[in-house]
Write a structure and sequence with these properties.
single chain, 141 residues, mainly beta, Immunoglobulin-like, 2 domains, four-stranded mixed β-sheet, 0% helix, 49% strand, elongated
């Protein structure tokens, strides 16, 4: 940016209504201060919204995990996201970055461990995880 008054805080931004649907931003305004004879580059964190959907199947018979809960964990085991499961084991998450995640399904008082994968670079839209198989509970049953 050129032509800014030196040492005077100036607010710069972008028109958020011109941002395509499927993207989000943290802030559309920033405060910039420049030294005399210099300029500034203001960067804004705009990211694609990516949703993940799929279906959970439990046990070795691969029964749908109807009316349970799927919890997505980070590498340290902390909860990242939580989704209620539909009657056929369907789940939905918003704003998950691409990568592989550990998951825990809470169903009928038992815990089932599984792994979810969100492939590719983040781009706006809905990613399909397909069927996520959770073969046994945390006790190996």
């Amino acid at each position: 940016m050129r032509g800014l008054l030196p040492w005077y805080p100036v607010r710069v931004g972008f028109d958020a209504t011109r941002l395509p649907i499927g993207y989000r931003y943290d802030t559309a305004l920033k405060r910039v201060v420049v030294a005399p004879g210099t300029g500034a580059i203001a960067t804004f964190d705009v990211t694609a919204l990516q949703s993940l959907r799929g279906r959970v199947l439990l046990g070795h018979g691969r029964e749908p995990a109807g009316l349970g809960t799927l919890v997505v964990l980070d590498d340290s085991g902390a909860e990242l996201a939580r989704s209620s499961l539909g009657s056929h084991g369907d789940f939905w998450f918003d704003h998950l970055a691409p990568g592989a995640y550990d998951g825990v399904v809470l169903h009928d008082g038992r815990e089932y461990r599984c792994r979810l994968a969100l492939q590719g670079p983040a781009r706006a839209g809905i990613a399909h995880a397909g069927e996520v198989h959770c073969p046994g509970d945390s006790d190996g049953n």
